[in-house]
Design brief:
The chain has about 200 residues and is of the alpha/beta class. The chain is built from 4 helices and 11 strands, in the order βββββββββαββααα. The strands form 4 sheets. A 3-stranded parallel sheet has the order 2-5-8, with no helix packed on it. The radius of gyration is 17 Å and the shape is globular.
């Protein structure tokens, strides 16, 4: 699976700080700071960015919308968790942005998008010349998301055929490259075997 790394960036004074749309599997979104925007981080209704675990992103600005982060792919808790943020609540508002809860008209209900867990080290950019200096940047994404792709489940509220095909290609490449890691996962191994002679395998 291709890893997309967005690490140690600062955004300021634009309408949207960082925008994601479509399937962005294997994304590492770590150590980014979103300052003054309407919304700091925006995921549209097709966006999937994988799990971000104690990634150390910071929302340090005042947001005109009142929301530091906004996820339109909210049609189910399953969809929200395909872009799950695991954060330490003890770090305060800087690392835990205000998100919409579907109270006001036109707003998504992002309850469950952020999962609060304590007792883990939070990523930071201090002392790194390049984001790839930290081996965690090359870590694997969520097995649940891989299994959803293998099972052809809808992982966004507008999961179009092109996004499905791209996700399957990335998944097949990842499994083929590192099949030993996933050898105990029957769903993923079945997907690998079933697609060996299909367009995805070729």
């Amino acid at each position: 699976m291709i890893t997309h790394i967005f690490s140690c960036n600062t955004t300021d004074s634009t309408k949207t700080g960082i925008y994601f749309g479509g399937s962005n599997l294997g994304t590492k979104f770590r150590g980014n700071e979103m300052k003054r925007h309407n919304i700091g981080l925006y995921l549209n209704n097709t966006a999937v960015i994988d799990t971000q675990t104690h990634a150390g992103n910071m929302w340090t600005g005042v947001y005109n919308s009142n929301y530091g982060a906004w996820n339109e792919n909210d049609s189910s808790l399953f969809n929200l968790t395909q872009s799950l943020f695991i954060v330490d609540p003890n770090l305060g508002a800087t690392f835990n942005p205000n998100i919409p809860l579907g109270v006001n008209p036109g707003e998504p209900n992002d309850q469950g998008w952020f999962d609060y867990q304590t007792g883990f080290s939070t990523y930071n950019c201090d002392g790194l010349l390049l984001c790839v200096d930290n081996h965690e940047e090359r870590g694997e994404g969520s097995d649940d998301l891989k299994e959803a792709i293998a099972a052809d489940s809808a992982i966004t509220s507008a999961y179009i055929e092109e996004a499905k095909s791209n996700a399957k290609i990335f998944l097949y490449e990842d499994l083929k490259k590192d099949s030993v890691t996933y050898s105990n996962n029957s769903a993923l191994m079945q997907f690998l075997n079933d697609n060996a002679n299909t367009t995805f395998g070729k």
